[in-house]
Amino acid sequence: MAILKIARMGHPVLRSPAQPVKDPTATEIRRLVQDMAETMYEAPGIGLAATQVDVHEQLIVIDTSEARDQLRVLINPEIIWASEERQVYEEGCLSVPGIYDGVERPSRVRVRALDVEGNPYEFDADGLLAVCVQHEIDHLNGILFVDKMGRIRKEFFKNCLY
Ligand code: QAP
Ligand code: CO
User: Fold this and answer.
1) Atom of ligand 1 nearest to the CA of 43
2) Do residues 30 and 21 lie in contact, with contact meaning Cβ atoms separated by under 8 Å?
3) Which of these, 60, 146, 155, 160, lies nearest to 95 by C-alpha position?
4) Sequence-distant (≥ 6) Cβ neighbours of residue 4 within 8 angstroms
5) Can you tell me which atom of ligand 1 is nearest the CA of 46?
6) How many of the other CB atoms lie within 10 Å of CB of 117?
7) How many CB atoms lie within 10 A of CB 142?
8) Pick from 74, 60, 75, 57: which is nearest to 13 by CA?
């Protein structure tokens, strides 16, 4: 187990898209999942995408539970349905420490992914989990939550912090 270094905004690795995981049960993937989980819990955070630790594979760990005992591992995740209804939620990011702002996204999503055994599963998410899944999948596509903030705030980040 190891704590991984989290890339901060401004680092080009955050803009690099991830490739699908070819062999979800490979030893390196299992180790990466363990290390990403440890890194997320230690931060502490509720979600971490492989992109943030400079690994460009479609892998996410999430734990939005109060007790921090419900680790979700999403390999090659896809949003297969998103609600028309949208909500604004106050987001932050381990790669953008100290910055929080409201971001509008679909309120509910249905997600398909592979688990650590490489088996496909689906789940419906709403509330914080829906926000977190969408935020982390954005990371896999090189997108940061600041890209989705209000226009004026976004311009500020473009000019000052990229
Ligand atoms: C994404 O973010 C998220 O600025 C996960 O100083 C955030 O775990 C999804 C963190 C909000 C939904 C709602 C941020 C820790 C953690 C910071 C995180 C910080 C320390 C962010
Ligand atoms: Co983030």
Assistant:
1) 15
2) no
3) 146
4) 35, 36, 39, 53
5) 8
6) 10
7) 16
8) 57
Pocket lining: 88 vs ligand 1, CB cutoff 6 Å: no
Residue showing tokens 């299992």:
30
What token pair was written down for 10?
């401004």
* pTM for this entry: 0.96
Residue with tokens 């390999």: 75
Task: Name the amino acid, one letter, at 63.
Answer: D
Kindly compute the dihedral angle of the four CA atoms of residues 136, 142, 52, 149, in this order, to the nearest 10 degrees.
-60
The 10s digit of each residue's pLDDT in 33-70 is: 999 999 999 999 999 999 999 999 999 999 999 999 99
Angle at 66 between CA 7 and CA 63, to 5 degrees: 40
Q: Which of 83, 86, 122, 80 is nearest to 104 (CA)?
A: 86
